[in-house]
Design goal:
single chain; 207 residues; 8-stranded mixed sheet; 4-stranded antiparallel sheet; 15 strands; 6% helix; 49% strand; disordered N terminus
Length: 207
C-alpha cells in the first residue's frame, strides 16, 4: 500500500488580476491590489486538475484599530470606492478562498484546497499604494494508491480515512483527493481489501 501525502493537490495558478482606482484626491489615498496564487509543489499518484480562480477569493480590509471596512468581499467585485481609503497607517488586508470549516466540508466532505494571505499597508493622501499579494496553500491533500500486485490480487478494495469524517477511497475513485486542515489530529486509516487468489477466496483486513 502506498500513500502519497500532498502539500496541496495539484496546480499552481498564477492569476495576475489587478485593481487600480483612479488618482485619489483630498485626504484619501488609493489601494492598488494585485492578487495571485503561488506555486505549489505536489507528489501525486494520478494526474488531476484544479481550477483556482482568484476572482472569487474573499477580501477583508480593517483599519489599524481593528475596525472592519470590507468583509469577505469577492475580489472581482471590489470597486474604486472600496479601494479609496482615508490616509492612515497599519491597514490590515486579509484574503482567503474559503474558511477552515469549508475546507473540510465542501465537495461532499472531501474538502477543497484553502489559500490565504495577509498583509499590512499604509495609505498616504493623494497617492496610490500598490500591494502584490500571493496567496499560499494552508491545508493538505491526501491521495491513496496501491501497488499493482495488490490490485491484481484484490481488485475490489476500500480504504477509509477517518478524522471527524469517514472518507472512503474505492478502486473506482483512485483520483479522489481528501483535504485536511494542518491543525487536524493524527489520522486513523482503516484499510479493507477483498479479492481472490489461486482459486481461493482471500480477505485482508488492515488497520
Amino acid at each position: 500500500l502506498k500513500l502519497a501525502a500532498l502539500s496541496c493537490c495539484i496546480l499552481s495558478t498564477s492569476c495576475d488580476n489587478e485593481i487600480i482606482p483612479s488618482e485619489p484626491i483630498g485626504a484619501k489615498g488609493a489601494l492598488a491590489l494585485t492578487l495571485k496564487t503561488g506555486e505549489v509543489k505536489t507528489e501525486t499518484i494520478t494526474r488531476a486538475t484544479l481550477d483556482i480562480d482568484v476572482n472569487t477569493f474573499r477580501v477583508s480590509i480593517s483599519e489599524s484599530n481593528g475596525t472592519p471596512l470590507i468583509q469577505d468581499k469577492p475580489y472581482a467585485t471590489l470597486s474604486e470606492s472600496d479601494c479609496t481609503l482615508p490616509s492612515d497607517k497599519g491597514y490590515l488586508l486579509s484574503v482567503e478562498n474559503c474558511t477552515e470549516t469549508e475546507a473540510i466540508t465542501q465537495n461532499e466532505r472531501w474538502g477543497m484546497p484553502r489559500f490565504t494571505a495577509t498583509s499590512t499597508f499604509d495609505i498616504e493622501s493623494g497617492k496610490t499604494t500598490s500591494v502584490d499579494l500571493v496567496c499560499t496553500l494552508e491545508n493538505t491533500g491526501l491521495q491513496l494508491g496501491f501497488d499493482p500486485t495488490f490490485i491484481d490480487k484484490f481488485p475490489i478494495h476500500a480504504v477509509t480515512v477517518q478524522d471527524s469524517r469517514a472518507l472512503v477511497f474505492k478502486s473506482t475513485n483512485q483520483e479522489q483527493i481528501a483535504y485536511f486542515n494542518t491543525t487536524s489530529e493524527n489520522l486513523t486509516i482503516n484499510v479493507k481489501l477483498t479479492g481472490t487468489a489461486g482459486g481461493w477466496s482471500d480477505r485482508l483486513d488492515m488497520t
